[in-house]
Amino acid sequence: xTQTLTLxxxxxxxxxxxxxxxxxxVLPETARHFARAIIMPNLVPPVVTAADAVAYRDRxxxxxxxxxxxxxLMTLYLTEHTDPADVRAAAESGLIRAVKLYPAGATTNSHxxxxxxxxxxxxxxxxxxxGLPLCIHGEVTTPEVDIFDRExxxxxxxxxxxxxxxxxxxxxxxxxxxxxGVAYARSADDLAATITTHHLVINRNHILVGGIKPHYxxxxxxxxxxxxxxxxxxxxxxxxxxxxxxDSAPHTDALKEHACGCAGCFTATNTMSILxxxxxxxxxxxxxxxxxxxxxxxxxxxxxxxxxxxxxKGAPVTYPxxxxxxxxxxxxxxxxxxxxxxxx
Length: 344
Ligand SMILES: [Zn+2]
Prior knowledge:
This protein is of the alpha/beta class. It has helices spanning 20-31, 50-63, 84-92, 121-130, 150-165, 179-185, 204-208, 225-235, 253-256, 271-281, 288-300, and strands spanning 3-8, 11-15, 36-39, 71-77, 96-101, 134-136, 171-173, 191-195, 242-244, 308-317, 322-324, 329-331, 339-343.
């Protein structure tokens, strides 16, 4: 007997599309299943101003194959020089849906990020007034802090003081990886958290045991099993504060399989199949739609999508192990277990 599951069309609340040939190759992988995505602004150079966001949105739409529908939800990369008036105008016109805070040096192309939070206070106050979410890559970058502790330390030493200094600021804790992140996200109504597909599947053993696995290396790095289980519980709980942000982050194999390999897992292609499997394993298939399609729009104050997708369960499905981008290949995330659900 075929099992089917129909959901409101999902959105991805954290996505890297890059630019140029990479953008053209990976965009259909997301647009095939997802109606909208929050587009990360960490290009080189980053998307800092409203004018940058207009130009990037136009390049994304030009890269979309004929016959596919997709709405990029643009963001600005917060710098110490960001102009509050530019942010206000971009938000009020509907051009941008969030601003992204990268602590300087935290991840790919984040060297232009923020070092001194006092320098962005004016922007944060405008955002609090408008209700515009601040998406935060929540890791400290000080070398004394162990990489596995960076998220928990960030919450205590940066995020909590930042929120106290700017009352009313709405924050999305991006790609949380720890039980500490789950607990903090639950602590206030103006907080939410995205969870990636891969952090529901892998822990740090997957990266390091039996030889280093560069395609499981991402930032924030996967943590201990107890943290993965906390993320699973949060994602499948039905709590509206938690929703999908895949952080699908393509790099060519040449840059991943390297002496200094890039951080990122590419999950756009098979995310819906993996999530259906994960939610089924946790007896929570009835909560998948909330996680992928309802909680995100609610936090972002956007309507849910009008149409639906249907998944069917059957014999194991396979996906291409790599996407050809012309100037190399991008490896598709391997969850390490068979996938039985496929989007019709
Ligand atoms: Zn990211």
